[in-house]
Amino acid sequence: MNKIFTHSICAFIFIIFLVAKLSAQQTTISGTVSDKTSKEKLAGVTVTVRGGQATSTDAYGHFSFKTTRQKPFTLVISYVGYQTLEQQITGSSTDLSFELQQQGILGQEVVVAASRTPERILESPVSIERVSATAIQQAAAPSFYEALANLKGVEMSTQSLTFQSINTRGFNTNGNERFNQFVDGMDNQAPGLNFSIANIVGLTELDIDNAELLPGASSALYGSGGINGTLLMTSKSPFTYQGLSVQLKTGLNHVNDPQQKASVYNDYSMRYAKAFNNRFAFKVDFSYLKANDWQARNYTDYDRLNNVTKAGTRTTDPNYDGVNVYGDEINTTFGATAGFLNGQTVSRTGYNENALVDYGTKSIKTLGALHYKFNDNLEAIAQADYGIGTSVYTGSDRYSLKNFTLGQYKLEVKGTDFFLRGYTTQERSGDAYNATALGTLINEEWKPSTTWFTQYATAYNVARLGGQTDAAAQQIARSTADAGRPQPGSTAFQALKDDVTSKTIGPGGGAKFNDKSNLYNAEGMYNFSKLLNNVVDILVGANYRIYKLHSDGTLFDDLTRSININEVGAYAQINKKLFDDKLKLTGSIRYDKNQNFDGKFTPRISGVYTIAPNNNIRVSYQTGYRNPTTQNQYIDLLVRTNTRIIGGLPELLDKYNLNTNKGYTLQSFQQFSATGNPAVLQPYTFGKFNPESVQAYEVGYKGLITNKLLIDAYYYYNQYKNFISNIILIQNPTPGNPVGLANYQVFSTYANNPAKVKTDGFAVGLDYQLYKLNLTGNVSYNKLSSASNGYINQYNTPEYRYNLGINSSNIYKNIGFNVQYRWQEQFLWESPFATGTVPAFGTVDAQVSYKINPAKCTVKVGGSNILNKYYVTSYGNPQIGAVYYVSLLFDQLLK
Fold it and tell me: Which of 75, 311, 525, 674 would suit a FRET pair with 109, their CA atoms being 20 to 30 Å apart?
């Protein structure tokens, strides 16, 4: 491990022991919380010293912690579905007993993500969504991650059964680089491949305590990447949740799928946790999922030069290029020496994706953690998360992530007012490969394109001289050139596939990646509020990060060199309540510096005003930013014979002479292709490559009406500067020679859009409690209000989407249910892979559960997309059908 990283960890631990030594005299607070009617002990109840420490009850309703507050002080006891109780403590503070009355009280959840300090969700200075452990257990979707799509303003791109990417407020992409995800404080993004992998490897469903989602800019507290939103997922403490939990889930998918038979979906998970003397605790998690994946079967004819679809098929279009067909990207335009084919463009015959990609989806997740409490306010954690998975990801091409692994390893010490944390993310691409390259290289190994096109031209001309029509001659020519071509399922085809996928992409002449990139991160935060007697709340924090890229030239420009990227950041926040606590003002600022770019300040200021009890108006101005990702900076990937993706740093542009032998803009080259007039060609000049930033304005209202109806609404306006966009350039590889359709190189790279990109939108959410029913609904609107100026901005967001739901955890004699309906309208999807229209769709998820208390078991029957109406979330990705399942949860809670 890097020396700086190791020294930082040692310094952090030393500081912690010093703080523990100097801690003030503390008062122990302990007791139990139960239901007033049933007398059942309640787990997960939040117990807070007003203005101070907070904890939660364990599985038997017991809590115990210490505070430096002197008596008298007030305890606040809150729990979803129960009326909040406040009790002033003047005498004994141990062996307390509290009973909560069930009542339709919404908006009482305590959140941390919005300000990095505990606060009621009603009082959050910015928009925030929270999903509790109870809500996760009641989710209708097969996995909690899929259920996040029901949250207000959330959109999801599904690339495979176990690979979903979530986003908020526009610019949705398959990797979603503008959206941060953290698991127990660790950045969940793969350092090399740049996508978040929370639902491939990460927390198991049994170990998730809660998830908090911040739509909109959040860089002021969470750094680069959170320009559109941040998701924080927290696992369960082994002190609070002890015992053995086992869940067995099995089901079916591909029901009524015209391409394949229904197949089994299995998902098994286990968690065990144990605490000793309330000082030492450990937990272990394991989950295993196996299923047949959704298949991408979009065979629409695609014009890659113009990024538009065509009305053709392999039979009718000699230059057919199917969206999910690979190898047919290779084409040639015949010249005068080709006789009747002069001026005709012909592509090779490709292979459908299902012949190339490994659809045997699997996911294995493991977690182990050791916790030690020095006292009730100081805890040390050593944690290891490791997972291996096989899935499919859509980037510039479709990638088969076969045996992809990722490990995250953390050391942390935390108290009520601070944390010090160091972790590393270790990514290994395993047997992952590029499906597009695989199709192309199988063709080339079987028969080189020079030979194939020669045979095609000869057969075509012979057929035309024999009196055949153009269409008939095209078919004869293709059959002749394809004679003996290995077919999927044959021994010859499998041998070629195995050979190509065993060799590395680029220098190795194959399709396999060899990425072993690592991330090292050290960070800390301290809250000075208590030292200031809570007159004003001040917290500060900092982090140091190192990316170590290692792909052996298969992904990055690191074949002959090592690439390290260093980042440093620091932030401070202050908040103060005024006017009898009716107004809370919060201000924060962060500074970050990446070695390749200028430093960046990102301020945030917000105000929350209580217009009536449990009714608050919030206003905020905040800035967000993101450094270009590791791929935005250093990628160097040959994706087709004449097409390469390169990073936007000057050294990559110089490597391919794009500053001296300038590339032409795609739009001007398209005009040249149509007219043959070289005067329309426009060379592109690169400017300075900068981090992207956004100025985000938001006004919102969150209020509780008659303790039954919770309303949350907001309007936002975003203005982006230096927006990082894709740009496609056509370069003449031999300057001075005439530019021709068969004489060019294509580069896809990254540059800042010089125009200010503007978006705006709103969302409204309603939650209503009626008897034992929870009725939910939300609608969101997002709009891009500026032109692309020739840059591919990839907004990829429908203007309108809405969700409707009804659920109950116990509607009658331990029977619960949940029904969710989700709809979104048609929209245009743009990406380096393909651009096309995603049709509107609506889908229903539902489940019914029955709790068997004596056996400590819960049986659940449900499904996602239960009406089985196949749909796609993003162009070029697979169609998603129903998953029907039954699960059995055994939860043995040990004291």
Answer: 525
